[in-house]
Amino acid sequence: MAITKEDILKALSYVEEPDLGKDLVTLNMIEDVQVDGKNVSFTVILTTPACPLKDLIRNACVTAIHTMVDKEADVTVNMTSRVTSGRGDTSEVLRGVKNIIAVASGKGGVGKSTVTSNLAIALAATGARVGLIDADISGPSIPTMFGVEQERPYMVQGDHGKNYIQPVEKYGVKMMSIGFLTPADGAVVWRGPMASSALRQFISDVDWGELDYLLLDLPPGTSDIHLTMVQALPVTGAVIVTTPQKVALADAVRGLQMFRQPQINVPVLGVVENMAYFTPAELPENKYYIFGQGGGQSLADKYEVSLLGQVPLVQSIRESGDEGSPIVLQNDSPASGVFKELAQSVAQQVSLRNATLGKTKPVEIKS
User: Fold this and answer.
1) Phi and psi at residue 9, in whole multiples of 5°?
2) Which residues pair with 17 in a beta bridge?
3) How far apart are CA 248 and CA 340, in angstroms?
4) Radius of gyration of the chain (CA)
5) pLDDT of the residue at 83
6) What's the CA gap between 130 and 115, in Å, rounded?
């Protein structure tokens, strides 16, 4: 009996997307079904190029066809992606950006910029279009992390004759930082309103174009910058970076709770535990919990969010950041794999958030 497109779609209607809990056909994730005798092909549209379940979904599709249609069918599953967005605002601000992710910590020194830089590059390596705003006005470190301290943005003319700043781009990531506009050895001593004004310019006066993910590397604590961000942008979700010890966790809780305040109400995508354990290069199987153990997991459990990843304390992570070539670029490094898995986890949580929660809009904070 000849195989039909209807047979294929019926079989695939029994394949569930593990995160979203619905079948691929209902979710409109199947396109371009082709049948030629026993040769069957179709395309699965994933919600992110960083999907960690790609192989699982592919194998489930093949199994469904062989089980429900024809065990001798030659099945070709093409995988592509269309990043989802949960934006519900109608403003012109960053209209081409699908998802805005705030990376925050309650305190400094936990490696937030290192995590953000490697996360951005890892997402870009999957094929996603990625941007990065260095929102730490008084302590910008993104130019150093990317090895572009000497780069300077230039102006381009956009629609209606308005001039826009062209962001610096490296490793597939578009970025903007106050570090590109001030002397490397100069101190930025600004009051809150000036810093907030600079952030607003990075948002509205930079030619970001079309992006799947825009990451914001926020300063430590909870300040004017954080309020400016949630008021100016429809933030998809926040990632909280901490280290395992009690003093860092106490501040991370404050950072997390800021996003959960009723008047802000930004979803927390999860927690990243940085410096989770020390592994010496000569003993790669050994783990020494210098700053304590399980702090990130306990924080995630207490506030019912995901532990997105545990990043080891490895000398090469620090060295590569200082050299402007983040560790995620070194495919032979175990730490590189950690950041790639982190990118998959973040992308997964963004897709889940967009499918299950309400539309994201800028926050209206009444003084």
Assistant:
1) -65, -35
2) 22
3) 24
4) 22
5) 94
6) 15
- Asked if residues 24 and 30 have their Cβ atoms less than 8 Å apart, the reply is yes
Residue 149, judged by CB atoms within 10 A of its CB (0-12, 13-18, 19+), counts as: middle
Place of tokens 């979700």: 237
Query: Helix or strand or coil: residue 211?
Result: strand
Question: Rounded to 5 degrees, what angle do the CA atoms 270, 272, 274 make?
Answer: 170
Diameter over CA atoms, the chain: 76
| C-alpha–C-alpha distance, residues 216 and 181, integer Å | 18
Cβ atoms of 10 and 40 closer than 8 Å: no
Cα–Cα nearest to 349, from 123, 95, 133, 27 = 123
- pLDDT of 223 above 80: no
The better pLDDT of the pair 170, 222 is held by: 170
Angle at 3 (CA atoms; ends 67, 16), nearest 5 degrees: 45
pLDDT in tens, 253-310: 988 998 888 888 899 999 999 999 998 878 878 899 999 999 999 999 999 999 999 9
Residue type, 267: P
CA angle 351, 357, 360 (to 5 degrees): 90
**Residue 219: both structure tokens together:** 């300063």
Q: What residue type is assigned to position 33 of the chain?
A: V
14-54 pLDDT, tens digit each: 999 988 889 999 999 999 999 999 999 999 999 999 888 89
Q: How far is CA 350 from CA 32, 44, 56, 365, in A?
A: 26, 19, 19, 24
Tokens of 76: 């070709």
For residue 297, CA distances in Å to 58, 106, 238, 255, 257 come to 31, 17, 17, 16, 17
Calculate the average pLDDT of the chain. 89
Of 129, 93, 90, 95, nearest to 359 by C-alpha is 90
Helices and strands counted in the chain (H then E): 10, 15
Q: Regarding beta strands 97-104 and 173-177, do their DSSP bridges make them parallel or antiparallel, or are they unpaired?
A: unpaired
Angle at 261 between CA 296 and CA 266, to 5 degrees: 70
Q: How many residues belong to the chain? A: 367
Instruction: List, for residues 136-185, the tens digit of each pLDDT value.
Output: 876 788 999 999 988 888 888 777 778 888 999 999 999 998 888 766 66
